[in-house]
Amino acid sequence: MKAFPDNGKTLPDGGKANRRMRERSKFYQMMWGGLSLFGIDLYPNRTRSAFRNLPQFISEWRSYNRLVRDSSQRASLRYFYPVLADRDEPAGNLDIHYWLQDLWAARLVCASGTEHHVDVGSRFDGFVAHVLSCVPVTLIDLRPAPIAVSGLSFIQADATTLKGVDSNSIDSLSSLHAAEHFGLGRYGDPIDPDAHLRFMSSLARVLRPGGKLYFSVPTGLERVYFNAYRVLSTETVLCAMPELTLLSFCAITDDGDFIENCDPSILAEAQYGCGLYEFTKLSS
Predict the structure, then answer these.
(1) How far is residue 45's CA from residue 29's CA, in Å, rounded to a whole number?
(2) pTM, whole model, 2 decimals?
(3) Can you say whether the dihedral through the CA atoms of 225, 227, 232, 236 is positive or negative?
(4) Which of 9, 13, 151, 235 could pair covalently with 136 via S-S, beta carbons 3.0-4.6 A apart?
């Protein structure tokens, strides 16, 4: 058997996927840039901020054009692109779970010395991008890859059972904030109440003895928000992969605090924490 299914392919740098991504990004920028002029935004706070800042925007636009000496630098209506809420935002917008977990896992992968990393379903523009800066990555996801880039191999497949991937074959493996979605149909996958358990068992199966698995999932009081995601207890995660040994556990609390090298029980009563698990396999 091969280490990966036959439908895996390495995506070259550039090509049609990149052009489509750029065109789509340009369209969304133009669309939202125009709507923001009228204070329309997906988030109520930004909408209020846009209305509040519109008069100042108009005043500054006029002031800028009065000060321009080079006609090529004039702010014309043809390229009107109002961004009205950013002045009220912090330096960079982030989802605290994803930002902290991606940094945590990427640092561990890059420090491990691995020559190749395999990921299942993690954030493309976060963790995967971080790891690509230090090592080639094979990404497995149910949905198609949004862009082609050198160093990235992509396999589009349902990863519930990791069919076609040899047992004990992967040295460096991750799945961040992905297991909670399996079996809920959100991404077009089959409905299966136990899919997340079968997926975690599959991760344990394909990990090579001595290898590392970096895993995260929403953690706390167990429940299902159909069809968005699950919150899992640490007991569920540990029981789903009994053949693995937990090397370290870090937590992101309900308040967004990062707690390093703590006991998993710290998230037992959390509403929506995030458990960060570093596993290894001692034997096959």
Answers:
(1) 19
(2) 0.80
(3) positive
(4) 151
